[in-house]
Amino acid sequence: MDEIASLLEPQIPALRRYAWALLRDHEAADDLVQDTLERAISRWGQRRQEGDLRAWLFTIQRNLFLNGLRQRKVRGAQVGEEALNDVQAFGTNPESHAGLRDVLNGLDALSEEQRSLLLLVGVEDLSYEQAAKVLGIPLGTVMSRLSRARARLREFMENGRSTVLRRVK
Amino acid sequence: MTGERPIGEDDLQAYVDGRLASSRREAVKTYLDDHPTLADQVKQEIDLREALRARLAFKAAEPVPSSLRIANLMAGRRRPGWGRPAAVAAAAVGLLIGSVLGAAGGIWWSGAGHVAEASIAGNAIAAHRIYVSERLHPVEVPAEQEAHLVQWLSRRVGKPLTAPNLTAQGYRLIGGRLLPDSGEAAALFMYENTDGNRLTLYARSGGTEAQTSFRFESRDDVSAFSWLDNGLSYVVTAKAERAQLLPIAETIYRQFETTGGPAKGHL
């Protein structure tokens, strides 16, 4: 138990950040992290090597997130993926966060896969190999999709949201 | 610069991420000096990367809520004797009758299995032998109709199935078929790698346990791992050594686990 805690706990801040970036809701993000940790604990025996721990945890978390989206769509609940577009950033002072808020809006202009890729590589510092594992795609595909995601984000930031159609999954 | 690898998309991305070795970094810089438009785009992408990190940094800096403390999560599970989760999970499904052989490759598997499970594994191995050697008609429904295949087999087997993605292991789906197994419907997915080696994933409903650990068996040159999960019995079979097949079995298992069980129609 101490071993599990000592390996999992250092990962929690990053998992919370990724969850919040996906959901933009503090409570929902922590619920997602909790589900992730519970699953990791119950599947602890199945993880392969400690070196893979981060990739493994992010894989679990992303799949739980996607699962949640799918279920919400099936149930026809109000909160869909599209709602993320309308969520305002949490900065209390709109002036000071104006530029930064745009980055998150830009993130929303991307597909979920592109968003996850930018977050996992650019923010969570996963290696390209780890990102390939999390997304279940080959390494070469990671590089080309990363390139496309960054170009798309850049174009969005340059031209504004009106010119970029949000991709509906 | 003669003889050097040309600058690629991958170099530019690694440059944005600051992950290039110094010699390669210099090569990219030189290249960008000659391509000012591209250099400007790369600069913007570096800035955006930084902006995103800065915007999200607050979240990782927050104190972790006590509800997420591992000790609290474990206590909340209310399982007696917690501490060796895999062993406890295996015990919970009554599989520790035999000796636990060990944690080879980080995964637990038990020496004793259920008779029903053994016969399903036997049927799966037999199906593997018959169909992987088939050249003209290895599958009934080809991978081009994957959505239809998965839907059809799910309906016949009576549980939502999914064809796991094994691209990272070098295997691609070539299709599947429906098979009889002791009066029940069973699904067989077949995969092939670039060397033409084939592996099969067999699935049928069965078993009352929520979950079991991996069970290994080999007959002649064919190896198989079987397990029960979510009311489905799975067997992955290939002409391979145990050590080669184990990571594939783990991948399949994990894909089902991390998606919270096979999601209908999700590939």
TrEMBL record, chain A:
Gene3D superfamilies per record: 1.10.1740.10, Winged helix-like DNA-binding domain superfamily/Winged helix DNA-binding domain (1.10.10.10)
Superkingdom classification of source: Bacteria
The keyword Hydrolase is assigned to this record: no
Domain RNA polymerase sigma factor 70 region 4 type: 102-153
InterPro entries for this protein: PhyR_sigma2, RNA_pol_sigma-70-like, RNA_pol_sigma-70_dom, RNA_pol_sigma70_r4_t2, RNA_pol_sigma_r2, RNA_pol_sigma_r3/r4-like, WH-like_DNA-bd_sf
Residues of the PhyR sigma2 domain: 8-60
Record key words, sorted: Sigma factor, Transcription, Transcription regulation
Protein family (similarity comment): Belongs to the sigma-70 factor family. ECF subfamily.
PANTHER family in the cross-refs: RNA POLYMERASE ECF-TYPE SIGMA FACTO, RNA POLYMERASE SIGMA FACTOR RFAY-RELATED
Protein's UniProt name: Sigma-70 family RNA polymerase sigma factor
UniProtKB/TrEMBL annotation, chain B:
Keywords assigned by UniProt, alphabetized: Membrane, Transmembrane, Transmembrane helix
Protein's name in the database: Anti-sigma factor
Keyword presence, Transmembrane helix: yes
Membrane-crossing segments per the record: 86-109
Keyword Transmembrane helix attributed: yes
Top-level lineage group: Bacteria
